[in-house]
Amino acid sequence: MGLREKFTETLKEAMKAKDTLRLEAVRMAIAEMKKRDIEARATGNADGIGDAEIQSMLQKMIASRRDSIALYEKGGRPELAAKEAAEIAVLEGFLPQQMSAAETEEAAKAEIAAAGATTIRDMGKVMAAMKSKYTGKMDLGAASAAVKKLLGG
């Protein structure tokens, strides 16, 4: 089952269960996906975005919510931070199991070796390779930090 079908099924389940939080999170993701489908049509892609792009979109939505949580906690709004955290949990349910920090570091080491990277100037090349191979499977922010550390930056 593709991600689009999974969204549809989850939407139906949330409606039947009257789970408003899950329903809102899924609707928000579907709206973003439709927006990106429209943008893709302008470039000649009539089928819309694929699963890899949907996973990337979800990761960006999750990162945005993590930023919001930090701001809400700083501003003394724990109820809004909790709502954002619950939305993150819903969105993460659509992503494959994320790689651990140790697995991320091992992947970074492998990509550094494959690219022949030796300095921080090579970071872009390494991150491009990691993004193409591991989108949806790892937190690219954590991967960037690991690559930076390994290259001595």
Number of helical stretches of at least 4 residues: 7
What is the CATH top level name of the largest domain? Mainly Alpha
Count of folded domains: 2
Pairing-aware structural class of the strands and helices? mainly alpha
Average pLDDT taken over every residue: 90
The oligomeric status of these chains comes to single chain
Q: Any key phrases for this structure?
A:
globular, mainly alpha, 2 domains, Hypothetical Protein Yqey, Chain: A, domain1, 153 residues, Arc Repressor Mutant, subunit A
Give your account of this protein's structure.
The structure is a single chain. With 153 residues, the protein is mostly helical. The protein folds into two domains: 3-92, Uncharacterised protein YqeY/AIM41, N-terminal domain (Hypothetical Protein Yqey, Chain: A, domain1, Orthogonal Bundle); 101-150, Orthogonal Bundle (Arc Repressor Mutant, subunit A), CATH 1.10.10. It is 75% helix and 0% strand. It is built from seven helices and no strands. The protein has helices at 3-17, 20-42, 51-74, 78-92, 101-115, 123-134, 140-150. The longest helix has 24 residues, at 51-74. The termini are far apart. The mean pLDDT is 90.
